[in-house]
Amino acid sequence: MRKLDEVRLKVDPFRGFHGGGASAVFDAEGSARAPYAPIVDVIRSCSPGDLNQRQQRLDFAVEELGLQFSDVTSSRSSANPWGLDLFPLSLGAEEWQLISTGVVQRALAFNAYAQDLYSQQNILRQRVIPHDLALRDPAFLRPLSGIEVPYGEYSQFGAFDLVDAGEGDWRVVENHMGTPFGLSHVLQNRRILSQVFPELYERVDVAPVAGFSTYLLEMLRAQSARANPHILLLTSGQPGQAYFEEAFIARHMGISIAQSSDLLVRESRVFLKTIRGLEPVDVIYRRVESSALDPIAVPNANVFGLPGLINAWRQGNVAIVNAPGAGVTDNRALLRYSDRIIGHYRNESPILRSVETFHLSDVDQREYVSEHREDFVLKPMQDHDMLWQICGERPQNSAASLARIARKHADYFVAQSIPEPAKLPRFKEGEFSARGGYLRVYYILGKEPIVLPGGMVRQKVSGHRTRRLTIATDGLKDVWVPDSVVQDSAPKRPPAQMGERFSISSRVAESLYWAGRYLERAENTARQFYTLERLRWDQMAHAEQRTYWPLLQAVAAATGQSDVTKRKRPPRDTLPLSKSLLLDANEGASVRACISYARNSLERVREVISPECREVLEDITLYLNAEAKRPVSRARLAELCAHMVSELARFNGTAERTMPHDDTWQFYRVGIFFERAVGALAVLKVAMPRVVEAYHEVDEESADLTALLRLLGCLDAYRREFRSRAYVDRICSLMLQAKHVPSSVNFCLRNLDYAIGTLSYNGARALGSDLSDQIHGLLQVLADFPLAQSPMDEVGWLDAGELPPKSAQHSAEFVGEAFAGLAEQVEALHERLEDIFFSHQDVFAREPTLFGLE
């Protein structure tokens, strides 16, 4: 065995790394270049099995984190294009100095271009670049002209895509100065690879990248004169490719995510709609196109923006980063003239040159591209919604579709001749093969510009020499920069003061509230069906089935199956009903549907959910999706129910341990306890009248009432409280009045009141005080509930073994009406929650001062 291992160690994992172009890792003699020598040595010391295992761990970690371009769906993407590779890109000190200096030079020059274009337009007057190239740009928004941007820094945070044409000759492929993407992947790539392959980092002092998000936050804070400005990240609210990025950055910086509908402009000030009313916003980190910010300033662009936002920005009442209009710097047609732009604004020679780019509006350039079509890749001049509106259509997922649109609208397209990238190793199927890679480098401007010491490498798809850089890449790489190059270049800033606590937005509160409700509903249904399945319906006699039928009807009613409650006789087989209410994704109240709804609610507020919670919920989702495809049996459904109860308990335990117990946690708890109270009453109002109607003598076993207690999850609590067999009045007393039984309505309402009471005060008025008064009134209703009161004798009105006459107050009809009335009063709390915390209709109508408007 030892000899076999030694043979494996001698196999060179780079034996498949060969041919086709310059290598960034090995020189002509096959020796590793200096920046890569330690990496190559470590990898060659590993066996093929070890390398395969590490790559599998990388893939698992990437998928577990959701590190991919994907929409919010019910399951993970089966094809994850964002696989992280074992082999990093390593840059030497001199090479990095060249790149970082060139990045800052280009960022400053193109910022000056944006400022000039929106003011004097000297670059056009002096004919440095063609007029139509700039003025026809879909990202150029004339209504923004004349607005003074502090220090002329339109793009304070941006990135550039670079390609190594060989021997360290780095060229710029694209600018990303409007809304740069990918910072979260840089930070996660480093964290994951260092955990899976720590030996790589033991031989080299690699510059850290984790602090870059802190620098970004400090830059945002510096945009306001306030010591603790209110900063938020503005997103479109649409699930899409950037969602993971936005949630990750917001969570790392500790800021809120907002949509346009979460904001309001009053008297040229921007306010966030929170659970405490309107709170002023000082800085907005935008992740949407400039044209989508304000439908008044930019008409016919996007009706879902925030009216008045640009005017508030124009008057200096809110800072927006990156500044509206910064997208003009991303015009790919400018790349042909980037040397001129740098020379015009910086009076310097370009450090990083652009790849060869042709603007198809020019007849000569268009003809040249047409004659050498195979050497070029077509791109729109902007990745901008307005460009596709002008073209009248979007390209399908094919090069032919893009070429057809480019022929019709040549003014809005460019062609690039991208050099074949220097080859980097890509680990796949046990060995390293050669793939070209493209480097994205990030910067932050200000008094002391910062370049992220590293970046993100995206590798080419095999067989596509000039394929456009899209999400269909062949993997990501970590990027190394020597720590010695950057250790003294970090900006020196005084420590920030302790941040002020800001309220969560009403949208976030509502999403957490509904997530709590859906998860509690799923747990209730799973636990109740587990109890019923253990009764073995298929083995019951017909008389027994009639006895337990009310319980099954109660569960069905609680999950919205009203047709089941109308049936007088039980079905021969309840398996189809059980399967539907557990696994049918189209059944709105099924366990699977509830988990899906809860997942979607939490995905929309991912910035406030701990990664541990998301991991548990992903496991639950995958489990249910897999179970839905398997053959169904009673034993299988019982096992599924037990597993779901256990997993949902794990989720709640994880949430309690990893989420801050602030307003976000309290609204999640509000949803849980409200749903638990409503669910208990939904079962009681259906089951109790049927039980009362069928109950004629005391059964020594009290099987039906005992099953009801099991169904409600409080059989053990009943035994400890009463130490007797089950009686109706005592069950009512326990389920309605018990203060220490988690399933009782009293317990749920008290916890609901506590959660609302933890919200801080706003002036002299407590948030939700009216709602608290309403809850206290309901607690008194529970205390006076007639069915939970002992009758004149101490034994109880059912202890004698017979029911009162049907006309008495405890008839089945009276029982049904009493529970239905109580359920209606509890359900009315939802409307009060909605009015006070989510829509603000009630509070705003009565006290506009709570919104800071008076």
UniProtKB/TrEMBL annotation:
<feature type="domain" description="Circularly permuted ATP-grasp type 2">
    <location>
        <begin position="88"/>
        <end position="458"/>
    </location>
</feature>
<dbReference type="Pfam" id="PF04168">
    <property type="entry name" value="Alpha-E"/>
</dbReference>
<dbReference type="InterPro" id="IPR025841">
    <property type="entry name" value="CP_ATPgrasp_2"/>
</dbReference>
<dbReference type="InterPro" id="IPR007296">
    <property type="entry name" value="DUF403"/>
</dbReference>
<protein>
    <submittedName>
        <fullName>Circularly permuted type 2 ATP-grasp protein</fullName>
    </submittedName>
</protein>
<dbReference type="InterPro" id="IPR051680">
    <property type="entry name" value="ATP-dep_Glu-Cys_Ligase-2"/>
</dbReference>
<feature type="domain" description="DUF403">
    <location>
        <begin position="505"/>
        <end position="783"/>
    </location>
</feature>
<dbReference type="Pfam" id="PF14403">
    <property type="entry name" value="CP_ATPgrasp_2"/>
</dbReference>
